[in-house]
Each structure stands twice: as structure tokens, then as C-alpha cells.
Specification:
about 15% strand; single chain; globular; 2-enoyl-CoA Hydratase, Chain A, domain 1; alpha/beta; about 260 residues; about 50% helix; 3-stranded mixed beta sheet
Length: about 260
């Protein structure tokens, strides 16, 4: 099995490639540990718009070149902004927030494929995805306390949703460095594989997810998303409405004929 090959260059800072039902977004700043700056955020937002416009894409994979997945915000970039630092951060996080909201609303499944370190904003990006497959050598580091800055890039919202409040408090305030196995144990990582297997295992996972019935995915993902904020009565009503809509679709009708009485 082969996957879309990683490309190594300094320009652009993010790459986009398509293979059948899978779109690959590749962070492409290995010399900077794939750190996030304003240009990277604008590219991420632009590429996601292209992906959302494609009816053929069922799964999005976010991955990176080099030794690490993403070191978070580019501190050298921030330090170079001088008097425009606040304005730069405002523009960058504005684009980041737009990206995260579109990612949350997307009916496509999103997989983070992590090698090396996912730190700061890189860790926030991981928990913004629906799944994370990681190399056994990957590490997950909050890193915000060292900067004396609060988490950004959806870190607080998505981390609490992924691992619960107490685990999120422990992670951020005790500044833990989690191995891939530890991150899997608390729910950040979905699957751990050996480093040499990461590319092919990511591609297989993406194809497996892409093979799921579209109506099932497009109905179930938003239901799960809203379950964390709905009361039981509201969620039951949403499930009822969604199931009734699904069962009338051709995929479900075909399944009923196939699985029903012979």
C-alpha cells in the first residue's frame, strides 16, 4: 500500500494533495519544526476551503514533514513583529479560529498523523482533529506555561472535549510531556504504530474511514459533536430526527433489503 509521498521544501509552508477520497494537508517547514505563522494559518484556511468544496473528498489527513509534527506558534516570527505583535497575533488567531470552526462543522472526517513532537499549538491542532494516529516515538507537550501564555488554537475547548476537564487541568498546569502510549491512554491518540509504519498505517486508516457510508458519517459526526453540550432530551430529539432522515436515504434502504428477512 502506498500513500501520497511527503514533499520536502521550504515553500510553501503547507502543501495540499489529493488521492482519491483523501485530502492530505502537509505542514512543510521542517527547519522550523513546522511552526505556525501567519502565512501558514492563511494557507490552512484556504486549503480547507478547497477541500470542503470537493464532494469527492471523504477524509482529511493533517501530517508534517521532518522530525516533528508541529512545534506550535513560531516564536521567532512573533518576536520579529515589534510594535505590530498584537495586530499580527490578532490576524493570525482570527484565521486560526475560522479554520477551527470550519473544521468542526465539516462533515468530512479528519485525521492527525503525528511523528516526533506535537507541542503548544501543534498539540491544539491534534485535538482539533477527529482522530490521531501517532508514531510510538511521538510526544505531546502543552508548552504554554514556559511562554507564560494561555493555550490558543482551540486548545482549551478541544482538549476538554477530548480528555475531560481534570485531565486537561493536569496536562496544562502540571506541564506534562506525554508519550504516544500515555496520550492514547487518556484519549488524545486513537492508534499508535511503529515509526516506519506511520505513513502506510495513516493511509490505510484514511481509506477505511473513507469507505464508511457517507450518510452515516455525515449524520453521526455532528450528533457526536453536539452531544457534549446538549441535555439528554435535546440529544434524544436530535438523534430521532437524524435517524429518521438517514433511514429514508438510498444507502439505508439498500442495507435494509440486504440485511432484512430473506
Amino acid at each position: 500500500m502506498s500513500s501520497v509521498p511527503l514533499q520536502r521544501s521550504e515553500q510553501p509552508g503547507v502543501l495540499l494533495a489529493f488521492e482519491g477520497p483523501v485530502a492530505y494537508i502537509t505542514l512543510n517547514r521542517p527547519a522550523r519544526y513546522n511552526a505556525l505563522d501567519e502565512a501558514v494559518m492563511q494557507l490552512l484556511l484556504s486549503y480547507l476551503g478547497q477541500i470542503e468544496a470537493s464532494a469527492d473528498v471523504r477524509v482529511v489527513v493533517i501530517r508534517a514533514v521532518g522530525k516533528g509534527f508541529c512545534g506550535g506558534g513560531d516564536l521567532q516570527f512573533f518576536a520579529s513583529q515589534g510594535d505590530d505583535l498584537v495586530g499580527t497575533v490578532d490576524r493570525m488567531l482570527g484565521a486560526a479560529n475560522d479554520f477551527l470552526l470550519k473544521l468542526r462543522k465539516s462533515r468530512k472526517l479528519v485525521v492527525a498523523s503525528v511523528q516526533g513532537a506535537a507541542a503548544g499549538g501543534g498539540l491544539s491542532l491534534v485535538v482539533a482533529c477527529d482522530f490521531c494516529i501517532a508514531s510510538s516515538q511521538a510526544v505531546f507537550v502543552p508548552a504554554y506555561a514556559k511562554l507564560a501564555a494561555s493555550p490558543d488554537f482551540g486548545g482549551t475547548a478541544n482538549m476538554v472535549r477530548a480528555i475531560g476537564l481534570r485531565n486537561a487541568m493536569r496536562l496544562y498546569f502540571m506541564e506534562e510531556r506525554l508519550s504516544a502510549a500515555e496520550a492514547k491512554e487518556i484519549g488524545i491518540v486513537s492508534k499508535v504504530v511503529e515509526p516506519a509504519e506511520l505513513a502506510d498505517a495513516t493511509h490505510k486508516l484514511a481509506l477505511d474511514l473513507a469507505s464508511l457510508p457517507p450518510a452515516f458519517v455525515e449524520a453521526t459526526k455532528p450528533l457526536l459533536d453536539q452531544a457534549v453540550r446538549n441535555d439528554l432530551a435535546s440529544q434524544l430529539a436530535a438523534e430521532k430526527q437524524s435517524f429518521e432522515a438517514c433511514i429514508q436515504q438510498p444507502e439505508a434502504q439498500a442495507a435494509l433489503k440486504r440485511l432484512g428477512p430473506k
